[in-house]
Fold:
Amino acid sequence: MADVSLDFLASQLERVLNRLGAVEDQITVLTGMTIRLDGAVNGLATETRGLVQSINRIEHRLRKVEDAGL
Structure:
């Protein structure tokens, strides 16, 4: 079995912990981006539903005018 010093193990552990910190930072950024995109998609769906309702209302009013022969 190879002899490994405690200093070597400590330096390797520090390296792993630094990389883990970087990964945690990236996860935080990606989570924030995902939350923002999810909100944008939900907002777009709400706006689209509102536009469809508005168009349907205008179409209904137009049909009433056409049926009245105006």
Observations:
- The chain has one domain: 1-70.
